[in-house]
Amino acid sequence: MQKRLLEANYRFRPPRPSRVWQWLLTPVRRYLVRRMYSVRNIDIRGAQHVRATLDAGHAVMFAINHPAHGDPFVTFEVMHRLRVRC
Question: What is the separation of C-alpha 65 from the centre of its chain, rounded to a whole number of angstroms?
């Protein structure tokens, strides 16, 4: 019975990035990178090329290899510094 009600009222809502959540969770993300994964410094090389590509209206895909659990946190920090919205 309940399954039918859920299916009848279901409406797909695509995910949207929330600036509020990103703003609220940035300090948490930075803390986790420092504390749990011992990342002390993030050095971005070639940022001007990425920024120029984005400013020209082209897309950029960050492909990470995940050799460590901290890689997604570092990737989010890099995207934050480059002002890339997902």
Answer: 15
